[in-house]
Amino acid sequence: MPDAAHDVALTVNGTSYRGTIEARMLLSDFLRHELKLAGTHVGCEHGVCGACTVLLDGAPVRSCLMFAVQANGSTLSTIEGLASASGDLSPLQAAMHEHHGLQCGYCTPGILMTMTAFLREHTSPSEDEVREALSGNLCRCTGYQNIVDAVLKAAETMRAAAP
């Protein structure tokens, strides 16, 4: 017997979506397979690695632990929506590039989404605060120092640009 279908309406990266989806479809699968937004990566499928992190109404969530129907009525942001419409990188993306904060890149979308939310609330973070905020995102390649440096640089850039 197929899963029950549910109507959903949500906004993803500024675009409204309405449709019918299976009740048991994970948010990560919805983003990747229904909306073709493959930047949200699925690593552990247990919510431990953080690769699938997206912003739900501005808060970071693990999309592999959430059903898509739970996002009904919400606003989602994924890595595809982080740069401006003209393609300009966000200060965090630019700093990650400048400071070589990625290697294989698999964890990067989740880290960027986590740190985007973090920097909204912590405009002048310390290195220890950045490391604590990163603790839910696993990276097997970098050793984190360049990521930490990039987040600190992004915070500095964002403070300088603030009115």
Give descriptors for this structure.
163 residues; alpha+beta; Ubiquitin-like (UB roll); DNA polymerase, domain 1; 2 domains; five-stranded mixed beta sheet; 17% strand; oxidoreductase; metal-binding; 2 iron, 2 sulfur cluster binding
Please characterize this protein's 3D structure.
The chain has five helices and five strands. With 163 residues, the protein is an alpha+beta fold. A hairpin with a 2-residue loop joins strand 3 (53-56) and strand 4. It has helices spanning 27-34, 91-98, 108-121, 127-134, 145-161, and strands spanning 5-12, 15-22, 53-56, 59-62, 75-77. The protein folds into two domains: 5-81, Roll (Ubiquitin-like (UB roll)); 91-161, Orthogonal Bundle (DNA polymerase, domain 1), CATH 1.10.150. The model has no long low-confidence stretch (mean pLDDT 94). 34% of the residues lie in helices and 17% in strands. The chain is globular. The protein has a five-stranded mixed sheet, with helices on one face.
| Global geometry | globular
Query: Strands of the biggest beta sheet: in what spatial order?
Result: 2-1-5-3-4
Topology as a string of helices (H) and strands (E): EEHEEEHHHH
Mean pLDDT over the full residue set:
94
Helicity level: 25-40%
Number of helices: 5
Tell me the CATH architecture of the largest domain.
Roll
Keywords: 2Fe-2S, Iron, Iron-sulfur, Metal-binding, Oxidoreductase
Pfam families: Fer2, Fer2_2
GO molecular function, one term: metal ion binding
Protein name: Carbon-monoxide dehydrogenase small subunit
